[in-house]
Amino acid sequence: MTTAPTPALPAPGDEPRWLSDREQHVWRSYIEAATLLEDHLDRQLQRDAGMPHVYYGLLVKLGDSPRRRLRMTELARYAKITRSRLSHAIARLEKNGWVRREDCPSDKRGQFAVLTDEGYAVLRETAPGHVAAVRQAVFARLTPEQQESLGEIMRIVAEGLQPAGAGADLPWLR
Predict the structure, then answer these.
(1) Cα(75)–Cα(57) distance, rounded to whole angstroms?
(2) 3-state DSSP call for residue 13?
(3) Sheet of strand 69-71: strand arrangement
(4) What is the rounded average pLDDT of the residues 66-85?
(5) Residues linked to residue 113 through DSSP beta bridges, in sequence order
(6) In the chain, pLDDT over 70 holds for what percent of residues?
(7) What is the pLDDT of residues 94-122, one digit of tens each?
(8) Positive or negative CA dihedral for 141, 36, 72, 167?
């Protein structure tokens, strides 16, 4: 699959280039599916572990990291959330005893988030139900070819929304 060139934004005062009927259908289908999927996964995780989907993602990333620890800035980048939202999430996870913060010895302003043994146990208990929910909601509905296409499409979209240049307005930089 090839990527389409990124069109320039219209100049102020130019007439908008409206979505075609086909594009509008694709866009609305995406919005509906993304909203329903996030709600489905949030409800499953709230029911099974008392946490929202974004918190589960933080625990997964910490669980996959060396020594189950990661700099807060890297964790925000992974989760695609603001540092303020991450700080709030980590505070809630600390209150549950699932994560703790540690100061960074090489950077007085930096901190690590560390997955505790209790947090790791919660992650291990919760993962099978979450994987089943993801499989039922997404993978069981798609052919292997559709799965491959979806992965490639989402990668292209994500890469296009994360410019590498200085001054990029990305959540984890706010």
Answers:
(1) 10
(2) coil
(3) 69-71, 107-115, 99-104
(4) 93
(5) 70, 101
(6) 92
(7) 999 999 999 988 887 889 999 999 999 99
(8) positive
Cβ(129)–Cβ(117) under 8 Å?
A: no
| Location of structure tokens 């490639």 | 152
Nearest to 113 by CA among 160, 81, 145: 81
Query: Is 70 exceeded by the pLDDT of residue 18?
Result: yes
| Sign of CA pseudo-dihedral 61, 67, 72, 73 | negative
Residue with tokens 């959540």: 171
At 129-154, the pLDDT tens digits run 999 999 999 999 999 999 999 999 99
CA distance 113 to 109: 13
pLDDT value for 12: 75
Question: Residues 73, 78, 79, CA angle at the centre, nearest 5°?
Answer: 100
Mind giving me the DSSP string for 94-124? HHTTSEEEEEETTEEEEEEEEE-HHHHHHHH
| Dist CA 159 CA 165 (whole Å) | 13
